Each structure stands twice: as structure tokens, then as C-alpha cells.
Amino acid sequence: MIINPLVKFHVYLLFILCAVFGIHYYLLTYELLITSISFLSKSYLINFFLASFVFSGIYIVRKTQTDLLGFYFLGGSFFKFLIFFILIYPALNSDNSLSRIEFLMFFIPYCTSLLVETTQLIKLLNTEA
Q: What is the reported pTM?
């Protein structure tokens, strides 16, 4: 049975982000650094959807615009940072200070989703070459 690469990516990304979320939340609550999972869960969800959007876009154009895939990937990364600065940064910086914990609540899921996205794109593009 052949599984669609998009479905495979989404399931894999969801699994990895859920595992990292569990560890991240456990460490924050163990150290009593967080009492609410509201922002943390939103951060993981936003990163899941952004990585899914970028991967799906590249997957769709991978055969017709092969010489532009790198630019699409960079554009997707730029788009993620734009979303961060428009939607997330103002909420984090509402008290005019950005603590390390607040920064890591976005940066850990961002790096995790970027790592999964990059490795899966490399696998996908190498198998089709």
C-alpha cells in the first residue's frame, strides 16, 4: 500500500510536534514556569499549519517548477517569520519584555517543524530525482 506523501508528512509532523509539545509542557510545568497551556498550544498549532502550508505548496509545484523550489522554501520561511511578527510577537511583547521562556515557547515548535519539513522535503525531492 502506497501512502500519499502529503498524508505521510502531516501524520509525521503531527506525531513529532505532539511528542515535543508533551516534553516541552512537562518541563515547563515541572519547573513551575507555566500554568496555562493556551499560548504554548497555539504556538504548536500555528507552526503545524504553517509547515503544512509550505510543504503542501512545494509538493504541488515540485514537478512543474523544479528550479524555483528553493525560492519557494525560502519564501515559506519568510512567511513564517512574517506571521510570527504580526500575530505572535505582539502578544508575547505585550508587557514590553520578551523573556527567554516566552521566546522558546515559539522558537522550539518553529525549529521542530522546520527540521521535520526540511528533512521530509529532502527525502521527497531525492526520491523523485
A: 0.88
Q: What is the pLDDT of residues 27-79, one digit of tens each?
A: 888 877 775 678 889 899 999 999 999 999 999 998 898 888 889 999 998 99
Task: State the DSSP code for 4.
Answer: P
What does the DSSP assignment read for 39-94?
Answer: HHHHHHHHHHHHHHHHHHHHHHHTTT-GGGHHHHHHHHHHHHHHHIIIIIHHHHTT
d(CA 112, CA 12): 12
- Residues whose CB is less than 8 angstroms from the CB of residue 101 and which lie 6 or more positions away in sequence, other chains included: 28, 33, 34
pLDDT one-digit tens code per residue, 10-28: 999 999 999 999 999 998 8
